[in-house]
Design brief:
mainly alpha; globular
Length: 188
């Protein structure tokens, strides 16, 4: 098996594992509700079918440019600040950051670089939506932004047509950071 096919399979398995962990966390939190149990039991097989049958990647592997993903921390810190320091709430904060970022390409309509920035900023805004129980400070948000940026760089042409890619990759960055923080606190 070529390294390209292996990296694609590893990426798909990683993303599937992150989504299963997320669904398990929802299940554990809402164990008393049968509707959430039924929903999760329906959603899991649908996700599996989408992964197995869907066209999740392009044939040519592309990488996101580093200067584009540098905007992820800007979106994350902005959203985190609006969410926790100005008490706007996670949805309004992320929406405000994403809405503002959508106007970046207007400054120079011919710029390919500016057209790519709103998605990176909005991906960061998902990180900033985290509660302080998960993301206690700006350092956590910046660390999660770093891992999310790495995931965005390597998944440019993977998971094409899969809805929720930015939010899922932001979630994966937060999960990775939470795990590292857990390891540091457990062995420190």
């Amino acid at each position: 098996m070529s390294t390209r096919k292996l990296s694609r399979k590893i990426s798909i398995i990683f993303l599937l594992a992150i989504q299963v962990i997320f669904l398990f966390a929802i299940f554990r939190e809402h164990l008393q509700s049968w509707w959430s149990v039924i929903s999760i039991l329906v959603i899991c097989p649908l996700i599996l079918v989408a992964y197995l049958r869907g066209q999740l990647h392009h044939h040519e592997h592309q990488y996101e440019h580093v200067l584009v993903v540098c905007w992820i921390p800007i979106g994350a810190v902005s959203s985190f600040y609006l969410n926790h320091y100005l008490s706007l709430g996670p949805v309004i904060s992320a929406s405000a950051v994403g809405f503002t970022a959508s106007f970046l390409p207007v400054f120079k309509k011919s710029s390919e670089y500016l057209r790519q920035l709103p998605a990176a900023v909005y991906c960061g805004a998902f990180i900033g939506m985290s509660s302080t129980a998960v993301a206690p400070n700006i350092v956590f948000v910046l660390t999660a932004s770093f891992f999310t940026a790495i995931l965005i760089i390597v998944s440019k042409s993977l998971f094409s047509g899969v809805g929720g890619k930015l939010g899922t990759l932001a979630f994966a960055g937060v999960v990775i950071t939470s795990f590292i923080y857990y390891l540091i606190s457990a062995y420190a």
